[in-house]
Amino acid sequence: RLGLELAEGRYVLRGPQLPYSIQLDVTASAEQELLFVDLTQSTARLPMLKMKPDRQVITVSNQGTHEVLLRVERSSTSDDAITALQAASMPFFKKLFPQEILSAQQVTSVQIMTFVIVTTQTSESLASRFGELESCDLLKDHLERLIDFATICEGVFVRPFREGGMLVFRSPASAIQAVNQIVSTIPIRAGVMAWQPIIVVHQGPTMVTTLNGQLEYLGSAIRIVQDLTTSGKPGEITTTSVFADSLKSANFELLPDDTPEAIHARSPGETSTRASAIRFRPLAGLR
Description:
It is built from seven helices and 17 strands. It is of the alpha+beta class.
């Protein structure tokens, strides 16, 4: 006889010597708290058994000549399941299990992801303003803040990019949250932001694979968002038509339309990918 205190959820009663398992659904709507299992009878075709939460008693009858090992395991519904890629890209997973990566040569399926880059003008301008050592310290402080910021916004810090960093998000809403608050990662000097950031955002199909033991993101979306930084202006948010409607829906104000700047992204053996830079008014914290 086994006394349990299972919380609500799905469970399975199984054992290495049993050719079947018993599915348990612990739910508040159930009335049963006692379960009798006769191992001499096959219960493989039993429907999922419902039991009350917090207190259950399972009685097992074993008429055989050998001991049988049984265990109760927590199971998950399909809504709770995630892919290996999703787990590997979670900041806390990477922090807890830094050695757990996708196997070499393994390429995952293409997913729609949103990339955000925050950067500055040029390293020379920062170095001329603050000096070489201080500008490096400021950028290091900025990157450390970006890494923590990405985690808070349910994204991932991909890599440093020029004088800033690149972030990636599976959820467009999380990317918009990041764009809305990313100025908080800019170091403060003499009571004001050390520089006006250039912020660019783009969304597109992306393939994720493992290269040199690290997750890498491949596809034209990466090249487009990188090329957008050449059109970006300090204190403005630059995007493409792919993501412009999402920013409009979030009440970002579109800047007066100038002649659209064509962004070209080309890799060896590929045709050119064209996108137009669209600018949005900076938030209050950027003005």
